[in-house]
Write a structure and sequence with these properties.
alpha+beta, about 200 residues, 4 helices, globular
Length: about 200
């Protein structure tokens, strides 16, 4: 008797679910009666937004900052790279060793160079003397993982009209690591004042 009673209850519940589903489906498709005094054209039905899953967008990753400071030898090697750029006799290759916002206080010009065009202009004329530099004295100061200073004395051998001359000058190179490349952000060079 109990199993019969249970079957009746389950059957009744199933019928309710089926009827309820049919009513919901009919309500979704059957237009609603307009309220009294309202013209059916005045009734607006808000469209339902389509359901979709958002696709994840890639998040740009920042270049990781170095945590270890450079060695003194790594900073000393930067002068060789700069000197090798001079040997190409290409002012643009020399300017590539400088940051776009670098400041150059050059040895043989009174004009301060503060952008790439100014630096290219200076080296266009300076390279006519076929300069080649040698470090006479160097002091390296590591400021952290992304900055260092090399200051000291260098000697340039210049050749003009087949005649060689030497110029001794004081220098300061301030280097900064930008996008994985060490660049000169400040370069000061001045001839020795005492003869």
């Amino acid at each position: 008797m109990r199993s019969t009673h249970r079957s009746i209850v389950i059957g009744a519940l199933g019928a309710i679910l089926v009827v309820g589903g049919a009513i919901s489906a009919a309500a979704a498709t059957t237009p609603q009666a307009a309220p009294t005094g309202v013209v059916p054209s005045q009734i607006t039905v808000a469209p339902t937004a389509p359901t979709s899953t958002a696709t994840p967008t890639a998040t740009p990753t920042a270049t990781p900052k170095p945590t270890e400071a450079p060695t003194e030898q790594q900073i000393k090697d930067l002068f060789k790279q700069w000197n090798d750029a001079l040997a190409t006799r290409d002012p643009k290759k020399v300017a590539d060793r400088y940051a776009p916002d670098a400041v150059l206080l050059p040895t043989v010009s009174n004009k301060v160079r503060t952008d790439r065009d100014g630096i290219i202009d200076y080296f266009t004329h300076f390279l006519e003397s076929r300069p080649s530099g040698t470090i006479k004295e160097s002091k390296i100061k590591i400021l952290g993982p992304t900055a260092a200073i090399d200051t000291g004395v260098y000697v340039f051998t210049l050749t003009k009209d087949g005649v060689e001359s030497k110029v001794e000058a004081r220098y300061t190179f301030v280097y900064e690591l930008r996008d994985g490349k060490w660049l000169i952000v400040n370069h000061h060079s001045s001839a020795m004042p005492e003869k």
